[in-house]
Amino acid sequence: MIASTTKANTMTIRKNVPLSPLSTFRIGGRVEYFCEVRRLEELSEAVRFARAKKIPYRILGGGSNVVFPDGKLKGLLIKVSVGGIKREKNRITAGAAVLLADVIRTSIRAGLKGLETLSGIPGTVGGAVVGNAGAYGHSISEVVERVKIWDGKKTRELSKKECQFGYRESILKHKPYVVLGTTLKFRKGDAKKLGKISKRIIKTRERKYKPGIKCPGSFFKNVLVKNVSKKTLSKIDKSRIIEGKIPAGYLLEAVGAKGMRSGGIYIADFHGNLFVNSGRGKAEDVKKLSRILKNKVWRRFGVRLEEEVRYF
Ligand SMILES: Cc1cc2nc3c(=O)[nH]c(=O)nc-3n(C[C@H](O)[C@H](O)[C@H](O)COP(=O)(O)OP(=O)(O)OC[C@H]3O[C@@H](n4cnc5c(N)ncnc54)[C@H](O)[C@@H]3O)c2cc1C
Predict the structure, then answer these.
(1) What residues are paired with 246 via a beta bridge?
(2) Positive or negative CA dihedral for 224, 230, 232, 234?
(3) Atom 36 in ligand 1: which residue has the minimum CA distance?
(4) Which architecture characterizes domain 218-311 according to CATH?
(5) Measuring CA to CA, which of 29, 94, 204, 290 is 20 to 30 A from 85?
């Protein structure tokens, strides 16, 4: 264990830390160095540590959308633990590590509309902004006003436009930025109605994601109809297209994904886009299954599936 002193306090950088408890998929070997940062000074200190050692650093939120490697992950894994949540009229400002669920709860209680359909999505609000998390035709970008980032040198704020949000996409996914927090702007709604929607969605989701399931949510992104050829479209049952997207689950089920298995990883028998760890799953099993399924979907439909999960 290495105690790294910052001006504000002492941050601990741990060596050789097991990765699987850090993700909902419960997969992974060990990371060379690991630390949690609760404020900017600690983040700067952590990055200085990595730079001095000439090792890479990676950022982790709630770990609900990641696949860690089986062996040793080189470098420093920095878990962003910047908290704090504040509501002012129809705006909520939250630290990156605040759970998305807490932001949603705060908004609903205040009768603020815009995030209720994202109820039940695990992880932090920072992670949600990076991947533009969403469900039931809505995504967090609809309410993002600005995002506070650290760009490697200084902190600054990005406007919604600068974030370049798309379907499960943002510029934040492709730049070495650390999200420190976000300000969300909501429309007025009825707290009771919003609460009902939220509860109903959570109930529906619990049927798919049983409590304790070891998974990273949907594995592949759905496919935007505007990105596929006419030939591909002719092979798709149009009634399965939802909000301009072909569900990856539909394509995967058509190629027999349900129930497939590689080592300790299997595809749920009720959903083709749900990779589950039986308990002894390995990243290698995940990659193998993913490769096989991508090939099958490509050969049958001419569609290249893209992972929603992030490999480390
Ligand atoms: C049961 C289950 C259901 C799910 N359902 C949905 C769903 O309906 N819709 C949906 O969109 N997603 C869903 N997901 C996926 C996941 O919950 C979301 O993608 C979530 O927003 C990820 O947040 P996180 O904090 O866990 O991020 P992590 O998994 O920790 O990280 C994801 C990526 O974001 C980066 N990152 C995280 N925090 C920061 C930060 N502060 N600064 C910079 N980079 C950062 C990481 O480096 C990584 O590349 C589900 C997952 C599970 C396990």
Answers:
(1) 223
(2) positive
(3) 127
(4) Alpha-Beta Complex (3.90)
(5) 204
59 CB less than 6 Å from ligand 1?
A: yes
Choice from 121, 167, 201 to test ligand 1 binding pocket (greatest atom count within 8 A of CB): 121
Helix (H, G, I), strand (E, B) or coil at 59: strand
Q: Dig out the tokens for 128 from the structure.
A: 């949600």
- Determine contact, residues 223/246, Cβ cutoff 8 Å: yes
Q: What does residue 223 show for φ and ψ, rounded to 5 degrees? A: -110, 125
Q: Measured from the CA of 59, which atom of ligand 1 is nearest?
A: 47
Output DSSP code: residue 56.
-
Q: CA angle at residue 26 from 50 to 303, to 5 degrees?
A: 90
Cα dihedral sign, 21-25-26-28? negative
pLDDT at site 2: 60
Helix (H, G, I), strand (E, B) or coil at 186: coil
CATH top class, domain 2-80? alpha beta
Identify whether the C-beta of residue 130 lies closer than 8 Å to the C-beta of residue 168. no
The continuous run of DSSP H or E covering 249 comes out as: helix 248-254
C-alpha distances (whole Å) from 18 to each of 3, 23, 69, 73, 290 are 19, 10, 11, 10, 24
Rounded average pLDDT over 139-167: 97
- For residue 84, what are its two tokens? 């704090």
The tokens for 143 are 């309410």
Per-residue pLDDT of 230-277, as tens digits, reads 999 999 999 999 999 999 999 999 999 999 999 999 999 999 999 999
Percent of the chain with pLDDT over 70: 97
Domain ranges of the chain: 2-80, 85-195, 218-311
The terminus-to-terminus CA distance of the chain in angstroms comes to 23
Class of domain 85-195: alpha beta
State yes or no: is 218 an active-site residue: yes
